[in-house]
């Protein structure tokens, strides 16, 4: 009897021990996975911190370059004032010599001197005047050269500023991708730590949203690459079209020249034949003028090249008023690099947030994907609610929302806030019909 009862009890206990050992094994494996995942999270956090640090360095460089540019512009202005004043002095001196005849040669000064001492004094005075004039001209040349050098240096620094802005905008895409990867990793970590099914479901939803964001950013990267390829193709197509137009023009010119030469030769031959016929049988010819008209060759003009019909700009979406109304809500919001919410915006974060709330559209998280959110048009064709872009297609560095009347609203730069500016003060490179 004891044997019969004890055997199942031992088997039952062994089964619990097996389950506990299996759970311990699963817990150990889970802890190992979590440790590896935590290492991945730490790496992604370090990557995000590195991108932010690099962005701050670029901002500091941009600020330094901007100050140096302002200093150069002031130095150029000061030099130009000095040059103008010196030019006026030289003109006045030349005018005085011309009007009053006060120019005196060295020989005249010596001859007209009352004594040797007077002659020496006059020579020294004239030498002083000549040296002063020479110094004046020399300084004038040096200042003018300095202006040219500083202008070149200023243009170089402005180019560096623009390159810095392009790099910052590209960094934004890297930051978004790293943040999305970090969100997925954290969601995985939270999912593994969750113990209740309801919590797991909520975390799964968060993970799905993070994966969707990751997919969206990957799509933005694809669109950015596509925009860059399209810009290159458009540039190549324009070059080929220009070459074709030049060939057509040259061919038309050659045809016209050949036709003109042929007509001239025909007219000469016909005139000679008509003259011979008139001399031989003038009595049988009704009229010499009739004969000349019948023998005259009529030149057929070559067809003019047909200019390609320009593609009309697409019609506006009709959401311009709602987009502008939404944008005006955030006047005064401070600029924050990488900012996407009303607590702080950067240029592309501002446009993305406005279109999402005004139209429900996702237009991309930085400038290059936003170029593909509509149809590229010229700045003059832009209407309220369209987007303005600065920089070349595929490597833009700033974006704003067109308001109409040559104005736009944007998040300008660090230290500033969302505000309205005009095309005249800082003009965009192209626009996109939204």
Automatic annotation (TrEMBL):
GO terms for molecular function: cysteine-type peptidase activity. Residues 317-434 form the NlpC/P60 domain. Keywords: Coiled coil, Hydrolase, Protease, Signal, Thiol protease. GO terms for biological process: proteolysis. Gene3D superfamilies: 6.10.250.3150, endopeptidase domain like (from Nostoc punctiforme). The keyword Hydrolase applies. Residues 228-301 have a biased composition (Low complexity). Residues 13-96 form a coiled coil. InterPro entries: NLP_P60_dom (IPR000064), Papain-like_cys_pep_sf (IPR038765), PcsB_CC (IPR057309), Peptidase_C40 (IPR051202). Pfam families: CC_PcsB, NLPC_P60. The keyword Signal applies. Residues 302-315 have a biased composition (Pro residues). Residues 228-319 are annotated as: Disordered. Belongs to the peptidase C40 family. PANTHER family: MUREIN DD-ENDOPEPTIDASE MEPH-RELATED. This is NlpC/P60 domain-containing protein. It comes from Enterococcus aquimarinus.
